[in-house]
Amino acid sequence: MKTPVLHTDLTPAQRLCLDDLPLSGHHLVSGPPGSGKSLLAAHRAVHLALTGRPTVLLSRSRLLSQLLRDTLKDLAIPAAPVETATVHGWINRRFGADAPRTGDGWFDWTALIHRAAATFGEDDSGAPHLVIDEGQDLSPGFYGLARLSAASVTVFADECQRLTETNSTLAEITQTLGRSTGRTEIGGNHRNTREIASLAEFFRTGGTRPEIPLRSGSLPVVRHFSGTKEISEEIATLSLRNPRDRVGVIVASLRTGADLLRRLERAGLPAEPQLYSSAASTGRYRDLDLARPGVVLVHRESAKGLDFDTVVIADTETDAATDPTSAALRMAYYVMITRARQRLVLGWQGNRLPGHLEGLRGWATMK
Question: What is one GO cellular-component annotation here (predicted)?
Fold first, then answer.
């Protein structure tokens, strides 16, 4: 059974990707940053919900889950509701707040798989369709559990963007879900300029080389700052010059983020700056309005799946002691850089340019 595409703004390749996905079975859709995986995940969830079975759109990140929920509002069909949840939240509802955990704070996947297997096949009428965004950040153990707990599993992932220790390669995802898992690739980069995408290529760790966009813009900037005060002034200037834009400030430390927030709150910006903290249980540091213009400060671990007109990576000097060839370091910068749509600034403090930025001459303006 096929369902109609619900959004006319999808590209022909994105529409074809959705149309070719059967409404049963397990599927893995891979693609580079900017290919529209999160948007496709939301569409896929609505398509599956139209079958009448409960459908859950999952992500590891709470901030990404919030963004996906906002995306679904534009696709809402009252007769086909889609639930958005984090993996933590879904498992706690499925297995209870006492779901067994391991020493690292994550779940004991083996114990949960045994629980799910004990009731497997008894009554699958309530088994949901699961759609998972940024699926590379979840472990093979999770996919073993999903295979037993869901009517179908559709995963959107890019193994060049694995930032967590509990991650999976594309091969591990398909092996765990089963040999019959369908594989689809979606290409294109509809987010970055040619200059930003080219700089990101400097840090990409593997996989097929993605298409470089035709849309051109200004060169990214690598800029030395004397301190947090000067960084906040640069962020405020960028926001004031582009009042309709969203400015994402990515930090390695929430202490730095909080310091920048205090300074920006006194800068007279037209929109109140926002800071996201994964430690906040409610309130202004948890529930953000990601659609409105203005400044949003996020930790690196929460940047996955987001995009901004302007991105400022504020404190690259925190990586100065890290081996520039480290795959983890390169992957982190690949993810952060590809959050930017129009403008990109990589800031650093100290007496010497961090080693991982030394090779960027020609790819960026050095200030």
Answer: cytosol
- Among 129, 153, 185, give the residue marking a domain's end: 185
What share of the chain has pLDDT > 90, as a percent?
Answer: 81
DSSP per-residue string spanning 167-212? ---HHHHHHHH-TT-EEEE----SSS-HHHHHHHHHH--SSSPPPP
User: Alpha helix locations (H) across the chain?
Assistant: 12-19, 37-49, 62-73, 87-95, 109-118, 140-149, 170-177, 194-203, 228-241, 254-265, 327-337
Task: Please name the amino acid found at residue 208.
Answer: T
Q: In what order do the strands lie in the sheet with 55-59?
A: 83-86, 55-59, 129-133, 152-157, 27-30, 182-185
Whether 16 and 43 have beta carbons less than 8 Å apart is answered as no
2, 19 Cβ separation under 8 angstroms? yes
Of 150, 167, 185, which one is at a domain's C-terminal end? Answer: 185
- For 92, the token pair is 């706690």
Q: Verify that 90 and 129 share a domain, yes or no.
A: yes
Domain that holds residue 172: 12-185
Q: Which residue has the tokens 């080219």?
A: 198
Q: How far is CA 131 from CA 52, 87, 175, 209, 287, in A?
A: 15, 11, 17, 26, 23
Strand-pairing partners, residue 154, are 27, 131
The tally of domains found in the chain comes to: 2
The answer to whether residue 3 sits within a structural domain is no
Q: Do 69 and 145 share a domain, yes or no?
A: yes
5 domain-assigned:
no
Distance (Å, whole) CA 185 – CA 204: 18
- Residue that the structure tokens 């995009």 belong to: 307
3-state SS string over 20-80?
CCCCCCCEEEECCCCCCHHHHHHHHHHHHHCCCCCEEEEECCHHHHHHHHHHHHCCCCCCC
pLDDT tens per residue, range 11-50: 999 999 999 999 999 999 999 999 999 999 999 999 999 9
With respect to residue 122, please indicate whether it lies within any of the assigned structural domains.
Answer: yes
